[in-house]
Every structure is written in structure tokens, then in C-alpha cells.
Design a protein that fits this description.
By secondary structure, the chain is α+β, with helices and mostly antiparallel strands. The protein has 23 helices and 12 strands. The chain is globular.
Length: 635
């Protein structure tokens, strides 16, 4: 017979899942498209990777450029495409419906992780609600998939490996680590340091102690006095290291080597071809400016406040108080393996998040701290709040113990209500929710049908960065150029921007043909958004701003090439990505391909290109062509 208390606890978890499904269904069932901008939106880039697999493309190659690596790692789109094919769903419907499966799995996995470490079912439900608020769903991107599914699985399998090293736990850990490494690049950056440091610390090979040392204090009133000065002492035991190697080396090697082999599905070229070196300035423009001391300090303060001093709402205040109590709990209850493991992981997570204080002065680089927060720190801090609840439970008097469970149930109810309220507020305030409830524009929908049915999955298209982004999002088509933030970090995008500029606006026909053949460009796509996707003009025709034009880093070679082919350009010191602007981001000297190159609204390219273009599809609106697809014939 099932214990009534246990039955109630599982009923509460089931109730959470039912409530989440109800509200998610009410939202997802209203979508006709994705709740994201079709020009530059992350969800639409993810859709393009799914469609690319639907069309037979290689999931371990880039979904938007030929002969490069995917910028969104492949595990999530592979699973979505497999799910959609099994259920005969269109790609958008596959992404939306797969989110139900992700949500249920994430709730169950995180509940299990929390219960494993804190051994209290009520607390596990509360921490799950903290980590997975209703507004976090639907999950429609690889980042959130990795954070909610793969990283909690990593914490679980790593714990079992530390607890009992054998072939079974080694294999399970290796499988999870390998798959997580092809799910998100930051997962790999987080997992391996956590794996080795937890291994060393849990075996007491490395130890951290805070000791006090007497030191003289010359006071104004009386002569020197003795005061206690704290001192951090790091210990290392060679004997315990030798014992670990002797007893468990085969299991450690299995976990590391097998996971590393699985990771090579994506990481072979980044590791062994590019040696981890991304394209010029990639990490600098694509992240916060951690070379700026104020940015470093602000990031530290905001992170600490977010965990321990979040006053945004009553539930946030409760979470902050519980987090502080959780620190006390893990310090006072450090003998249990579960608490010791949690303490180690939290120390590693905080230390690794703020690694840039060390790596920026020494190496002038960092490992994207805000992604480390996503993958390592934020999945653990809700369990820290659970530690706070366990601290309260441990301090309750015997005659009040019976009321603790009632308090936990009330907190579950209050948190669930807060989640629902926040979810409804998000729906009411987000303009992208309304976008998702509208159909895809008819011209783009018609284009996507033609491209997916009448062109090859690896055919290369030439257009503007943002128009190409939408084209790829709906078809999985390959592009000559696209948004830099959604392209392979190891690919030379400047050379592609130059090639596109010469093909479209250059004065050398032979070079134009050579580049078309070199990049295997098969189609040129124009629509009414071409010019506006690059530059904004006032009523007098003057440039008043830009969105995402062709641009290059300002180098003597790039200037020389543009001038050689008579391509107009101008120089600006500004931000590289249209979505990453502000004081926290670096500016660079950039060369913009000027709108002076435009020939006309509907044929902005050099007229010499026209003789190689053959119209294969068009879309009319009110008697006017607003979109045309040309086949490029160079033979």
C-alpha cells in the first residue's frame, strides 16, 4: 500500500504538470507561426535547422551556409525532426509540440535531481517550480533545451559516478556528457571543468580550508595587539590522488574518453582543424565587453543580487531569503555526500562564472560567463533555496514538525499561482506572442513552398543578410551571407561579405563569375524588403540608420579590394551586430557597403549581373512584383 504522504507529494507534482500543460496548450494551440521576429529571430534560425534536416541535410553541417559548422548545435534539431517525422508534423508544428515533451521531461528530471540531493519530495516540487517557471515555456531553442534537460541530467549522472564509480555509472555519465557537448557549446565548457574539479575535491585530493592567523594590529591608543586574520589554505594529497588513480582510473578514462569521442560529432573541426580559434573578433563583438572593469563588476553584482537579493516580487524575496539560509544549510550539513556534492557544484559554478576576473588580465579572453550562468549556476541555485527549506525543517521544534509539510504545500500553491500570473503577464505584454498568432506572410510562405519543392537542400542563395535569414528560416536553404551572430564562429565571414559585394556591385565581370562558381551560388533572391533590410532613409533620401547591411572589419586589404572593384563604402566605428548595441558591448572600425551602390529599388545590383539571371519564381501583390527568385546561369 502506498504511503498517503508520498501519494500526496506525487499528486502535487502531477498537479503541477497538469496546470503547466493546460496553460501551455492554451498558448501553443493559438500559434500559426513562431513567437519570434522572422528577420533575425532565434526561434526562426532554429526552425531553419529543423527544416534542413527534414529536407535531408546533414545535421552536423551548417543549416544556413555551405561547407561550415552549425552555429546552433545539432542535438535539439535532430530530436525535433525525428519527433516530427514520426508524428507526420510540419516543422513548425513539430517544434511547438515537441515543447510539451521537453516541458514534462524537464519537470520530472529536475524534480528527481532535487529530491536526490535534498531527500524531500515537497522541497523537490518547490525547487522545480523555481527553476522551471511556467513562463520559461515553450522551449523552442537549443539553449533552453540544454539548460532544462541536458545539464540536470549531467548533475544526476555525475553524482552517481562520484558516489559509485563503475562501468555503468561511467557509461551513463559519458553518454550524457557527450550528447550535451553536441547540444550546446557552453555545456562542454561547463561540464569538463566541473567533472574534474568535483572528482578531485570529492576524493579529498584538493581541499579548501579557511584558517586564522594572529597578526599585529598597531592601534592608536595602546601598542600592538593581536587580531585574527583569515587565510585561505589549499591542500593537496598525493596519497589520495594515487589511490584514486589505482582504484578508479579505468572508470574515469571511460567517462572522459567516451564522452570526448561522442562530442567529436560536432567538435572535431573546432578542436583539430581550427584549434579553437574563432574568426576575427568573434568573441569580442558577440559578448559583453569583459575587458571593461565596470562591466565585470556590474555582472558580478547583478548575478549575486539575482540569487541572494532579488526584491522584484514577494516570491523572489522568499527565494532570496531561502538562498541565504541554503548557504547556512550546506555549511552546517557538509558530511552527507549529497550536501557535499551540492556544495562543491555551487562553489565550482560561482568560481567558473566569474573566471573572467582571472582570464581577462592574464589571457585577454573569457568563456562567455552569461552562458555559464545559464548552464551551470542557474540550474543549481533553486536547489540552494531547497537547502534553505531543509534548514527551516531541521530547526523546527518537534511539536511544530507536523505543520512544516502544510507550510511546504502552501508555498507550492503560492509559487504555482505566481508562475501562472507571470505567464499571463508575459503573454499580455509580449508583441512576439501576437506575432506567433499570425500566419507567415503570404509571399514568404509561397516562396518557401517553391524552394523546398524545386531546389536542392545544398543550393546556395544570394540576397541580403536579413532577407536571407528569413529565406533560410522557412526553407533551410544555404546562403552566401547571413547575420554574423547566426553563422559558424569558425568561418571567415569577411571573405563572404566581400564576395557578395563583388558579385552584386563590383565592376569586374570575370571576377563576379569566378566568385559565383567558387561559392557555388545557384540563385539570387530579391524582395521589397531588400533595401530596408540594410538601410533606413528619410523623405529626402538621406541615410538615417542601418539594420544589417554588408559590412567588413576595417583593414587595409579590405579597403584595397573594395576600391579595386569600384564598390562604394563608408567607415564607421560602431557595433557589429544590430541586436548587440550599448555601453556593455565593444565597437569596431567597420566598412559598410554603401547604398550608393544601389542601381534601383527592384534591381539594386550592377546591371552587368542581369544577363546571368533567369526568373524562376515571383510573387505579385496588387499587380506589382514584390518578390522574385532568379536562377544564376554562368555557363
Amino acid at each position: 500500500m502506498i504511503d498517503r504522504k508520498i501519494s500526496l507529494q506525487y499528486s502535487l507534482l502531477a498537479a503541477v504538470i497538469v496546470v503547466y500543460l493546460f496553460y501551455q496548450f492554451s498558448l501553443i494551440s493559438s500559434f500559426q507561426s513562431l513567437p519570434s521576429p522572422i528577420y533575425g529571430g532565434d526561434y526562426y534560425h532554429q526552425l531553419g535547422s529543423v527544416i534542413n534536416i527534414y529536407r535531408g541535410g546533414n545535421p552536423f553541417d551548417s543549416s544556413n551556409t555551405l561547407t561550415s559548422n552549425p552555429v546552433y548545435l545539432p542535438l535539439y534539431p535532430i530530436l525535433v525532426a525525428l519527433f516530427g517525422r514520426i508524428l507526420s508534423l510540419e516543422p513548425i508544428k513539430a517544434m511547438l509540440n515537441f515543447s510539451y515533451l521537453v516541458m514534462i521531461s524537464a519537470i520530472v528530471i529536475y524534480y528527481y535531481l532535487s529530491r536526490l540531493l535534498l531527500r524531500n519530495n515537497y522541497v523537490a516540487v518547490i525547487t522545480t517550480l523555481f527553476f522551471l517557471p511556467l513562463a520559461k515555456f515553450p522551449v523552442l531553442r537549443y539553449t533552453e533545451f540544454t539548460q532544462t534537460i541536458m545539464m540536470p541530467l549531467f548533475f544526476i549522472t555525475l553524482f552517481f559516478f562520484i558516489k559509485d564509480m563503475n562501468y555503468k555509472t561511467s557509461f551513463l555519465l559519458a553518454l550524457v556528457m557527450g550528447l550535451a557537448a553536441v547540444s550546446h557549446s557552453s555545456a562542454l565548457i561547463c561540464m569538463y571543468p566541473a567533472f574534474f574539479l568535483t572528482l578531485l575535491c570529492s576524493s579529498d585530493i584538493l581541499s579548501l580550508k579557511i584558517e586564522t592567523k594572529k597578526a599585529d594590529d598597531d592601534s592608536e591608543k595602546g601598542g600592538p595587539t593581536q587580531v585574527d586574520v583569515p587565510r585561505i589554505k589549499i591542500g593537496y594529497s598525493s596519497d589520495k590522488f594515487r589511490k584514486l588513480v589505482k582504484d578508479n582510473l579505468r572508470y574515469i578514462l571511460l567517462a572522459f574518453v567516451l564522452s570526448f569521442i561522442i562530442a567529436q560529432l560536432y567538435w572535431f573541426e573546432p578542436f583539430f582543424i581550427y584549434h579553437g580559434k574563432t574568426r576575427i573578433h568573434y568573441l569580442e563583438w558577440n559578448s559583453f565587453d569583459y575587458s571593461n572593469s565596470s562591466v565585470r563588476s556590474e555582472f558580478l553584482v547583478s548575478t549575486i543580487k539575482g540569487v541572494f537579493l532579488n526584491l522584484a516580487s514577494p516570491i523572489s524575496i522568499i527565494r532570496s531569503i531561502l538562498s541565504l539560509l541554503g548557504v547556512v544549510f550546506i555549511l552546517k550539513s557538509g558530511r552527507d555526500l549529497e550536501v557535499k556534492y551540492l556544495k562543491l557544484m555551487l562553489i565550482i559554478a560561482f568560481a567558473w562564472t566569474f573566471h573572467y576576473f582571472l582570464t581577462m588580465p592574464l589571457l585577454n579572453t573569457h568563456f562567455v560567463p552569461y552562458r555559464i550562468i545559464d548552464m551551470l549556476l542557474y540550474p543549481l541555485t533553486p536547489i540552494l533555496t531547497g537547502g534553505g527549506l531543509m534548514f527551516i525543517h531541521s530547526k523546527a521544534e518537534k511539536n511544530t514538525k507536523k505543520y512544516i509539510s502544510f507550510f511546504f504545500v502552501l508555498l507550492i500553491a503560492a509559487t504555482l499561482v505566481d508562475n501562472v500570473t507571470s505567464f499571463e503577464k508575459r503573454i499580455g505584454e509580449s508583441k512576439w506572442i501576437e506575432t506567433g498568432r499570425s500566419p507567415i506572410p503570404a509571399n514568404l510562405n509561397d516562396l518557401s513552398e517553391f524552394v523546398t519543392e524545386d531546389t536542392g537542400v545544398n543550393d546556395v542563395f544570394l540576397t541580403t543578410n536579413e532577407v536571407g535569414f528569413a529565406l533560410n528560416a522557412l526553407t533551410g536553404a544555404k546562403l552566401l551571407t547571413t547575420r554574423r551572430a547566426h553563422s559558424d564562429p569558425f568561418m571567415d565571414m569577411d571573405s563572404r561579405m566581400l564576395a557578395a559585394s563583388i558579385i552584386l556591385y563590383g565592376n569586374d565581370t570575370n571576377k563576379r563569375i569566378d566568385l559565383i562558381q567558387e561559392y557555388d551560388v545557384k540563385y539570387l533572391y530579391w524582395d521589397y524588403y531588400w533595401i530596408q533590410s540594410e538601410y533606413y532613409f528619410d523623405e529626402q533620401g538621406r541615410v538615417v540608420g542601418w539594420f544589417d547591411p554588408l559590412l567588413l572589419f576595417d583593414t587595409p586589404d579590405n579597403r584595397k579590394t573594395l576600391e579595386r572593384y569600384d564598390i562604394s563604402y563608408f567607415q564607421q566605428n560602431t557595433w557589429v551586430d544590430p541586436a548587440l548595441k550599448g555601453d556593455n558591448f565593444l565597437k569596431f572600425d567597420l566598412l559598410f557597403i554603401s547604398p550608393q551602390n544601389y542601381r534601383s529599388f527592384d534591381r539594386p545590383w550592377n546591371p552587368d549581373l542581369d544577363e546571368y539571371l533567369e526568373e524562376v519564381w515571383s510573387y505579385n501583390y496588387q499587380g506589382e512584383k514584390i518578390a522574385v527568385l532568379y536562377s544564376i546561369k554562368t555557363q
